Amino acid sequence: MTLSPKQSGQNKLQHSSWLFLAILGALMAFTSLSTDIYLPAMPQMRRDLQGDVELTITGFLVGFAVAQLIWGPISDRIGRRIPLFIGMILFIVGSIGCALSQNIEQIVFWRVFQALGACTGPMLARAIIRDLYARTKAAQMLSTLTIIMAIAPIVGPLLGGQIIRISSWHSIFWLLTVIGALMFFSLFLLPETHPAEKRARTSVFGAFGSYRKLLSNRQFMRYTLCIAFFYVSAYAFIAGSPFVYITYYGVGTQYYGALFAINLLGVIGLSFANRSLVKKIDLDILLRIATVIAMMAMIVLALLVWFKIGGIYSIVITVFIFFSMNAMIAASATAAALDGVPELAGSASALIGSLQYGSGIISSILLARLSDGTPWTMAWIMAVFTIASAAMALTSAGKGKR
């Protein structure tokens, strides 16, 4: 069932539905694009900046996780569009700062600043979907957005790898500046989906009390932690794969993007399938199936790496299966979580996003502190947290709502 936003917004959606989805998909892709596009440049950045370049990912994720918790209640109070415009301006300024950075301290600072704006994209895209659609339809729409947003992590590393061949890593951040500017102007085409009569009546600061309600909601937290644990594993690969593929296995930087992009082909394929499956199968059942498959793939990965079987091919194949499940896990768990708290969609989406992407902080810290110079650290981190994700899905007690 579709919820009714303001009439003007509703008409805009009807006349520009594919453009509307394309903009929301691009907003949801901001996190992946902001990180994945410079992955091939990390070895060069480490040499140029003389520091632990993994901290650029950690800094971004810290800013991303914390800022969402602020923007969520604000969007419930004043609507979705204004925070999006402000966020895009912050992203542009942060990208310029990164491009001009000359040492590791500067770029980490500007990556945090960049994240303060970038976080509004995926967080408010999810909230907008919940403003307009109920449980099953929301999952279907999120699957559609996943197809669109998957373009970024496919194109990002490929584009970044080519830029590094002809220019420096600074050019990558100048490109992000241009993309941010284009996104800013595209926001004028979006309607306001959170009308005044549905907004939180408390003050912005009072609205932060909604997090206490959400954290005490066991069912909401099971779905949210299912996503968060899965993304600890995903970010372990994102942060660890440049070393594993480029340094350990000797893959050329221009080919790294292609190996990374293979995983997103699985995401796209399963996203197409999930759009139909959510109409026929309960979200909780889909979620359990997907997390168990991902868990089995990561257990196999850990065993193959430990016993040194299959080399790089064992990683490529098992990680492909793992990432393919992302479409079902993210869409199903997010839709089910938000369905239980429709009156707190902005805050709930912020908390989901904060834990989802903030979980990458755990990955980058574990990799930085425990790496043994082989793929083993990445493999066991992915296995442990995918098992935790499956445990959350298997213990959820969905209402069976359609």
From TrEMBL:
Natural source organism: Advenella mimigardefordensis (strain DSM 17166 / LMG 22922 / DPN7)
Keyword Transport listed: yes
Family matches, as SUPFAM superfamilies: MFS general substrate transporter
Compartments, as annotated in UniProt: Cell inner membrane; Cell membrane
NCBIfam families named in the record: efflux_Bcr_CflA
Family recorded in the similarity comment: Belongs to the major facilitator superfamily. Bcr/CmlA family.
Protein's UniProt keywords contain Cell membrane: yes
Transmembrane spans: 20-41, 53-72, 84-102, 108-129, 141-160, 172-191, 220-248, 254-273, 285-306, 312-338, 350-370, 376-397
Span of domain Major facilitator superfamily (MFS) profile: 1-401
GO biological process: xenobiotic detoxification by transmembrane export across the plasma membrane
Keywords for this protein: Cell inner membrane, Cell membrane, Membrane, Transmembrane, Transmembrane helix, Transport
InterPro entries (UniProt xref): Efflux_drug-R_Bcr/CmlA, MFS, MFS_dom, MFS_trans_sf
Protein name in UniProt: Bcr/CflA family efflux transporter
GO cellular component annotations of the record: plasma membrane
PROSITE patterns reported in the protein's UniProt record: MFS (PS50850)
Entry's Gene Ontology molecular function annotations: xenobiotic transmembrane transporter activity
Membrane topology: Multi-pass membrane protein
